[in-house]
């Protein structure tokens, strides 16, 4: 192997060069993906803003339509109530039907044993027996009594 010792520095240079090329390639690819995602995020944000203004214009149209029949304040109140009810229904639809309770297994009961069949999934809890404190008049050598 002594005749190959002079090639060690070539191997290190090659590894360093390959690592540098790989880093640059990954960096360029991530930069390109970031540009595409920023553009799509910007377009989604703009569409949300336009939809918000469209909804406001629709609410104004409904209010003005009701104002032809009712006084202006009543039309605005009815429009606000309808929009509030719609928001409440959407919020209720977005929530899960049952909230997850802490300490509860989701989707059923806890297994009696782990799938490996090696026994209980947790160690058993030993029973706790309360110990009564030593009374001051009994002294330090007095035995403790169990309740």
Please specify the SSE layout and strand pairing.
Blueprint: H1 8-67, H2 72-94
Helix pairs in contact: 1-2
Written account of the structure:
With 147 residues, the chain is an all-alpha fold. The protein contains 2 helices and no strands. It has helices at residues 8-67, 72-94. 56% of the residues lie in helices and 0% in strands.
Helical region count?
Answer: 2
- Helix and strand sequence: HH
Q: What's the average pLDDT?
A: 77
Number of strands: 0
In short:
Helices cover 56% and strands 0% of the residues. It is built from two helices and no strands.
Main features:
about 150 residues, 2 helices, flat, about 55% helix, mainly alpha
